[in-house]
Amino acid sequence: MLGKKIDLMQENFLTGLGHAVPRTMIVGEITRYMREDAGCHYQITIGSDSELLPDKSADFVTAIVVHRVGGGGRYFWRRLERENFHTLRDRIIQEVLLSIEVAKELIEELRAADQAAEGETGETKVMIQEVVGMIRANNFEAKTKPWSYAASKVADRHV
Q1: Which DSSP helix (H) or strand (E) runs through 62?
Q2: Enclosing H/E stretch for 60
Q3: 78-126 per-position pLDDT tens digit
Q4: Which end of the chain, N or C, is surrounded by fewer C-beta atoms within 10 Å?
Q5: Measured between alpha carbons, how far is 37 from 55 in angstroms, rounded to an integer?
Q6: Which residues contact 7 (CB under 8 A, 6 or more apart)?
Q7: Is the pLDDT of residue 39 over 60?
């Protein structure tokens, strides 16, 4: 199960208020939010948290947090249930894999949106540069709890 590649962005995400957002609209929602105040600096963070259930399955929540530095933010989250998690190590590895896969897919969609928006104001391009800068060729900047606020504050809230 840990090595199985799945389309993690196929399910709907929810907003912080609980409204469903199809995964195909996440990038549009992020860019719309960023255009509301294009002069601000934004940081996109992705994190996952989990809870072991009595039947040894685990409930995983992954959050995409768009932080408008100095001015709040928005987040999207989704819950997945996976089976057969007997150790904390397995769950933590799965949390990391879920976050990495969502980040990779989000970057691909941001790049596609940037190509489609060429000739526009370039806000998407700036956003992609920031996200890619954070990720650096799949070597994600690792933050662990309690400093990984996407996991420890946002995803944990919905587990």
Answers
A1: strand 58-68
A2: strand 58-68
A3: 999 888 887 888 888 888 889 888 888 888 887 776 655 544 455 545 5
A4: N
A5: 46
A6: 105
A7: yes
